Amino acid sequence: MNGAIQRFETIGFLRGGRISGFLDRQRTPFYLNKCLMEVAHIDET
């Protein structure tokens, strides 16, 4: 989770505090994708 938070903070910094919208004055779109992944879980065993 820390890695995701750091990436969002980096993106926000590069985008001037915003994640949504266009990248520049030429209206280059900014896309954020997600993918389904297996992650380790901590359980009672």
Report on the structure:
With 45 residues, the protein is an all-alpha fold. It has one domain. It has one helix and no strands. It has one helix at 2-14.
Quick description:
The chain has 45 residues and is mostly helical.
What layout of secondary structure does this protein have?
Blueprint: H1 2-14
Alpha carbon gap, first and last residue = 22 Å
In total, the number of strands is 0
What number is the mean pLDDT? Answer: 79
> Could you say which structural class the secondary elements and strand pairing correspond to?
mainly alpha
Order of helices and strands: H
Unreliable parts = none
Task: State the helical fraction.
Answer: 25-40%
Based on Cα principal axes, name the global outline: elongated
Count every helix, treating DSSP H or I runs of 4 or more residues as helices.
1
| Structural domain tally | 1
Query: What integer value in Å does the Rg equal?
Result: 15 Å
Percent of sequence in beta strands: under 5%
User: Biggest sheet, in brief?
Assistant: none
Sum up the structure in keywords.
45 residues, 29% helix
